[in-house]
Specification:
The structure is a homodimer.
Chain A lengths: L2 E2 L5 E2 L26 H14 L4 E4 L4 E7 L7 E7 L7 E5 L2 E10 L4 E3 L5 H12 L3 E8 L4 E6 H12 L5 E3 H7 L1 E2 L11 H4 L4
Parallel strand pairs in A: 7-9
Antiparallel strand pairs in A: 1-2, 3-6, 4-5, 6-7, 8-11, 9-10, 10-12
């Protein structure tokens, strides 16, 4: 079973209930030679960082508005009615070598550009707030069809975002991504070693 | 309506659906002269910090395991079956003046001691991991009956936790809290100005 947000985006359950392989809405990128989603590959990476005392970075839970809960006898409370809420921040944050780390990860099937509609205005605003507090914010952009993942500083995505607000293009061309970001080599352990790039920034 | 976790702890909905005033399970402390919960007062405080560019600190969403979602036509997706999950980290984190901030907030109705059962082993472990990455971790302890709130460094609560693991007492006496923590003065704006104490640590 595959869940979708009201906006049509896929909800990826953390326990992998869904068989994503045969679903058209799901981008399967070869993060791990076994059809991991970007979120799974990043969770794997963060688990590796944690287990090896490299960094403490977690994905935030999906925000849910709970309306009704039942309490069956002798078993766990069951949420019977709840709704997806818009997140007010990015999905991932934590600490690495004393630095506050904050990022959002998005993927596209496009091969020639990355649509900015993948981001929400409040996420961009959150990254601006983090930068003001001297935190380290960035985005991870996955071109799933090309099997390429890039890391782009928040300052840079904010520039592209503002260009759009000023009437410019609603996406970042692949060429622009290549010029303004670092490509993250895909590995086995960790899968997406983004901190190797972050090392150059701190 | 008041929700409870399987362990009997209250679930405090963020939109204040529940009228908590007349419920025995709820500690009503005078954080604001209008019966705010500790969580509400902290969310208020963090909103003040954010609005005034002082810090970017958010409470993480309650982790929920989603099992079944319905998609009614022309309305939002409804989660029809879900369960509360154990959080793997503390509830609050963010960035303040370049420093990674991480904390958990708990309250007790006791007047003479603070029970350590308010914390989970994985939360203590998470704070240890944060300290190893040179982040700033602490706990906010509220004695709701006395209307007193303290901030205690993670290093200190870990010491009390280990004393318990070594067969020592399962709580921290009020006297010990006073000796090892800072009392946070309650205010109007912000309600619980914990960063004023954190200032002395960074």
């Amino acid at each position: 079973m595959v869940f979708h947000y009201p906006n049509g985006k896929k909800f990826v359950a953390s326990n992998k209930m869904s068989n994503t392989k045969n679903n058209k809405n799901v981008n399967v990128i070869n993060y791990s030679n076994r059809g991991m989603t970007l979120e799974e590959a990043l969770n794997d990476t963060n688990a590796y960082y944690l287990a090896n005392n490299i960094a403490v970075i977690h994905k935030k839970p999906t925000p849910v508005q709970i309306v009704d809960v039942h309490y069956p006898k002798r078993s766990a409370a069951v949420i019977k009615e709840a709704y997806f809420k818009q997140a007010s921040t990015t999905d991932y944050n934590g600490v690495y070598r004393g630095k506050y780390i904050d990022f959002e990860a998005k993927e596209t099937k496009n091969t020639t550009s990355f649509p900015l509609q993948n981001f929400h205005a409040h996420q961009i605003q959150h990254m601006e707030q983090v930068l003001m507090q001297n935190g380290l914010a960035f985005v991870i952009l996955s071109f799933s069809s090309n099997n390429e993942i890039f890391i782009m500083k928040a300052q840079q995505i904010i520039t592209f975002w503002n260009r759009m607000l000023d009437g410019g293009r609603k996406s970042i061309t692949k060429k622009e991504v290549e010029l303004t970001s670092h490509k993250i080599p895909l590995g086995f352990q960790p899968r997406i070693d983004y901190l190797k790039i972050v090392d150059h920034w701190i």
